[in-house]
Amino acid sequence: MMDWTARHARLCYRLMSRHTRLYTEMVTTGAILHGDRSRHLRFDAREQPLALQLGGSQRADVVKCAVLGQAWGYDEINLNCGCPSDRVQEGAFGACLMRKPDLIADLVKAMKDAVDIPVTVKTRIGVDELDSYEHLVDLVSTLVEAGVDALILHARKALLTGLSPAQNRSIPPLDYARVYRIKQDFPNLPLIINGGIDTLEQTQQHLAQVDGVMMGRAAYQNPWQLSQVDPLLFGQAAPVQSRAELMRAYYPYIEAELHAGTRLNAITRHLLGLFQGERGARRYRRIISERAHRLGAGLEVLDAALEGLIEMSGEPVSGARLPA
């Protein structure tokens, strides 16, 4: 989810669900320690509960970043051991770490010794030829011994050679049964399932077997479904009842970010899927795509994109600063 679950997207998601736990995009330890630290770590307090997902394999660097994450106010540190991209392979982290369970455990234990917030791991059910259930059990056992607070399992193995990152999200077959079996064999380990989960109906089915569900691209591409998370999964009222209400709540944030120097397209690129299935959605996307990147673009672009939209409920969205 690199470049996807950025802070502007997360704030929008939080306006739709008070109870969903949000995760940052994977941030490498090198980017935090040697890059623009504020750009990588800052967030709006309203995003919480929020986990910082780290990519790295050097013990000292991972620990430093975990300590920084806690100092910046994150609620959880998550170590990504499942990303198969070329970039992480060059850095010997991500899914490469699945070949070194003892190293993952050492990183977890070192972070646990350094911070007071939960330390979790996100990984896959196998990597390349190391895809037996026995190998997965060995990995999970090692993490449990290291004190991991929760495990997020993507129910596909990773193939580090021969497949692109996009193909790694679809070609290796899903094996939800293997994740369920891990939960049965490690009943005291909080286990979250990930991979190929597109709807809240599917989420409800998985929750009969595991402790949590992580949605990635499906939530990004069709974010409005998050507005039903609180009523369906937590028994709480939805914070907003319509996309129009959501945009009324989001506009002050956009305006403040524009005043702070943020470019409009840095925000609106995360909103392209918001009106999926609604009348006028194609026009909405076209206007944003054509105008939001222009120098000096402001709320008038979003006003124009929203004008004429009508939700399936029949409520007009309108623009012009979305009057109540």
Secondary structure topology:
Elements: H1 7-16, E1 22-23, E2 27-28, H2 29-34, H3 37-41, E3 50-55, H4 59-72, E4 76-81, H5 86-90, H6 101-114, E5 119-127, H7 133-146, E6 150-158, H8 165-168, H9 176-185, E7 191-194, H10 200-206, E8 212-214, H11 217-221, H12 229-234, H13 243-259, H14 264-268, H15 281-291, H16 299-306
Parallel strand pairs: 1-3, 2-3, 3-4, 4-5, 5-6, 6-7, 7-8
Question: How would you explain this protein's 3D organization?
Answer:
The protein is an alpha/beta fold and 324 residues long. It has helices spanning 7-16, 29-34, 37-41, 59-72, 86-90, 101-114, 133-146, 165-168, 176-185, 200-206, 217-221, 229-234, 243-259, 264-268, 281-291, 299-306; strands spanning 22-23, 27-28, 50-55, 76-81, 119-127, 150-158, 191-194, 212-214. α6 runs parallel beside α7 and α15 (281-291) runs antiparallel to α16. The mean pLDDT is 91.
